[in-house]
Write a structure and sequence with these properties.
Blueprint lengths: L1 H28 L10 H7 L5 E3 L5 E3 L7 E7 L4 H16 L4 E7 L4 H10 L8 E5 L4 H5 L7 E5 L5 E6 L7 H12 L2
Parallel strand pairs: 3-4, 4-5
Antiparallel strand pairs: 1-2, 3-6, 6-7
Amino acid sequence: MKQHLKALALVLALGGLAIWAFDRFFMSRVEQSPATISSVDKMETEGAPNFTSKSLDGQAFELHSMKGKVVILNFWASWCGPCVEEVPSLIKLVNEFKGDVQLIAVSGDSNEEDIHVFLKSFPELKGANIKIVYDQDRSLMKMFDVSRLPESLVLNKDLKLVKKLVGSIDWHTKDSVEYMRSLLEAK
């Protein structure tokens, strides 16, 4: 019995150490600096901060050039099970709106090769209304204060934040489609 208690104590101590190390390493990388967006409230009232990036297919784009469309900023990684789980429904939702809804899928993977391997499983992620971005230095994750994956920000046609979702969801439901339609119809 004493050996079981010692083993349990060792497992708990190592687990606590692992959690502490993860928090120190990962969370310190996504801390917000004063130069980044200050809050969700600011994005709701003033809109999302602009950024310029390059998608994996080499096309440069600017967030503010997408004004007039509903934009989903989806932060993910190929190693994240819940991220992978929501991809098919996210693709269906974006494709349903034939250009009026834009997906910017921002990968937090450790290297670009992991993303390319992942994309082989989802070739439909290469559509015209889908941009895959490798956030190598985590600057976009920092800018949008992302701390967990998957995390998605839904921006209206004025690029103001209307919904922040943390965790995996089924994007292609009747309610989701109606919600997106209402954002597109809003003046």
